[in-house]
């Protein structure tokens, strides 16, 4: 056998040996995990932590609706207004849950006889109660900003259950109704906060 051929055969054999040495222990470690290993929580950096979105856990049975393109656009508008106001994700959860209860995230105009007085927009805000003009209230950014302004005036809103914070701003005849939307609102914030 000539020298060049012998070096080639030894090179291939050496690479196979080295590959086996390196592959062996790695494969062994994967197949035989260390007994004191503990699971590690994996957190996606691009999604808010659910613990900050629902710090008190949900209250009562949760409701859910499928959203169309207009409702999804309104979710994104609420999130954008929340960010613009410099408020955290929790404020967006409260806002979206409130809008889910008040309008199912639809920017409602005057509803005639079905209307609750002169309530309009995503949050069913009333011009006669000082929320703004009908044109302002039906602007998703304006109505969200108005809701958030009211929320910021609630002492300790960050530490309140969602339904208490929303009710303090909205003064609804059905104060516990907001709680049923907390999970869907948190899911929407987690999905769209960084999109």
TrEMBL record:
Secretion signal, residue range per the UniProt entry: 1-23
Keywords: Signal
Top-rank lineage group of the source organism: Bacteria
Record protein name field: Peptidoglycan-binding protein
């Amino acid at each position: 056998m000539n020298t060049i051929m012998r070096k080639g055969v030894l090179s291939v054999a050496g690479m196979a040996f080295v590959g086996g040495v390196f592959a062996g222990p790695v494969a062994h470690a994967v197949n035989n995990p260390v007994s004191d290993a503990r699971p590690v929580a994996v957190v996606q950096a691009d999604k808010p932590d659910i613990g900050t979105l629902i710090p008190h856990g949900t209250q009562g049975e949760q409701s859910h609706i499928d959203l169309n393109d207009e409702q999804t656009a309104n979710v994104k508008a609420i999130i954008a207004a929340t960010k613009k106001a410099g408020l955290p994700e929790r404020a967006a959860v409260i806002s979206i849950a409130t809008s889910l209860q008040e309008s199912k995230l639809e920017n409602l105009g005057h509803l005639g006889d079905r209307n609750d007085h002169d309530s309009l927009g995503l949050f069913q805000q009333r011009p006669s109660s000082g929320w703004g003009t009908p044109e302002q209230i039906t602007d998703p950014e304006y109505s969200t900003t108005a809701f958030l302004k009211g929320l910021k005036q609630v002492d300790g809103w960050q530490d309140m259950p969602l339904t208490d914070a929303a009710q303090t701003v909205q003064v609804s005849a059905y104060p516990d109704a907001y709680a049923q939307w907390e999970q869907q609102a948190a899911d929407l914030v987690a999905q769209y906060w960084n999109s």
